[in-house]
From TrEMBL:
It comes from the Bacteria. This is Lipoprotein. Residues 1-25 form the signal peptide. It comes from Brevibacterium aurantiacum. Keywords: Signal.
Amino acid sequence: MRMMMRTLHRPAATLAVAILGFSLAGCSSDPAETPTDGTGDESAANIYEFETNGVEPSSEVTVRVPDDLREVMGADAGDMVIDQIVVTAHELEGAQYCAADLSMSYLGNQPLDMIAANETPTDRESAVQTFIDRIPDSGVDDEASVVEWLDSAIEGRIAKGYSESDIADSFEELFGTPVDLESDTYLSPYQDGDTGQDVFDRYVGSASDEQAPGTTIVAESLGLNDAHPQTDLDESAPETGTYVSEDYTTITVVGDCAASATDPDNAIEIELPSVDADGRSDTTATVQLSTMTDGTIGVAGEVKNYMRDANDDWIDS
């Protein structure tokens, strides 16, 4: 009855579109020179919209699904979670790892709706529900009434002359065999002198009352693992992982440094998620990011189910 934390599951699908040269933002050292718009003063906007020829590596890149693709996607575009991501360098001490800050712009009430859609019952709640489902009594609807039913069942079986093993067998037939999770050994469902609470606690064991935190749900929706609160990031002694701010608008990803702006072996892959009205999750596109120690950012990407034709128009792939 112990329940594992649920993660977002996405159906496998073929991803189509151009794979482009990329490199993400980074670690220590001086940032790369920022391209200009030709005036010598203002930085040119470096926006990646899954162009066939990509964009030049830069110290800052904005990633977004272009408007013309959203139009082609129709109603599916309304399921998108993210409007755009601005990727910039995050300086770390040393050269062991590189990092990038992802400044997230969400659509609608995201990511709160996505978090709510992916909340699952706690382990203890799942255990209670299992008892409710298997007890032949419609009046049992919460933990207190489960324990009350077990008390009554024990008293009734003792009154009928059931032995300790008879009572244990009757509970095992209804609820299965409890397990000690620490020693990974089976337990008897009932021992002489047990109360209903004793039996319930033996089945529940070390079931957790904790929900999957929003930081984990948001990170996993992006295809990222090892989520932590952003306050856990130590720039002087960084560890690989995903560090999410309390309001989910800034995400720092720490990983290996790329050897070049087109180093696919050290890329960080990020998924742009979508969630439909029923809470089912999918992926709109993937983006590959790699980090260099000079702060250069490059990007490559693929869009699921769509590709550009020879006229640069979006078509089904």
